[in-house]
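As agreed, record minuted below.
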Amino acid sequence: MKIKKAILPVAGFGTRFLPATKAQPKEMLTVVDKPVVQYLVEEAVAAGIEEIIFVTGRGKRAIEDHFDISFELEETLVEKNKHDLLREVQRIPNLAKFSYVRQSMPLGDGHAILQARHIVGDEPVLVIFGDCMYDSEVPSTKQLMETFERYGDPVIGLSRVEKSEVSKFGVFDGVKLDEKNIEVKNVVEKPKAEEAKSDLVAVGKYIITPEVFEELSKIEHGNSGEIRLIDAFEAMIEKGRPIYGRILDGVWLDTGDKFNFLKAVVHIGLKHPEVGEKLKNYLKSLKF
């Protein structure tokens, strides 16, 4: 079945970036000249997604405004003869069809995903969390779709990290199917480095099926006191239901903390046609 919809849970408070996120969503922090969330939407659209479902919360109105038409801004750009910028601004609301639902209480990422269930219906859906940019020749979401088209069951986007880093992530291991795909047999949320069975961690990109929604709907509090997506995966594995992992090609740009956000800015900045060469020369000139 062709995947046409994507859920972007963007209701978090962004506490790691305070005070910058006191009055703006962390997903609207800019990497060079675009907010993180626009990169994610553009990647999904490049993979064939037609509808984006944002799961928002209080203080997230800027995301809705960004993907809406701005008559005043467009009129100003016309008056100032800035037609290149006008085309760029007009392109944004036409990237996809946008829907918005609210997560009233911060009850976990699985709870956020459940808020979009009535819009998704009985279809598989792409899920992209708001701090997981990827720079790859083939969009990372398209890579997930390739695995889903082969197996027809939930797919988890994976990346290898240093063993010392695994305690920050959900860690997955299983049966190797080929160089890029595994059938997941075990999942552990933030294990100690010495206890981790694998160096494969979830990067915040998934394809989930109606069965995952069904498992999420059965969870009341979960192991962490919240409804977590990883709890649904654990329940499915215990029942012997197939789940697959796709080891993604490309560079994972984790924008979830300050240091990695800065790395993403430099990475994208160096490839930017307007500032790339200047940034490279500036970095070379620095003396430490």
About this structure: The first strand starts at residue 5 and ends at 9. The chain has a mean pLDDT of 92. Residues 258-271 form the longest helix (14 residues).
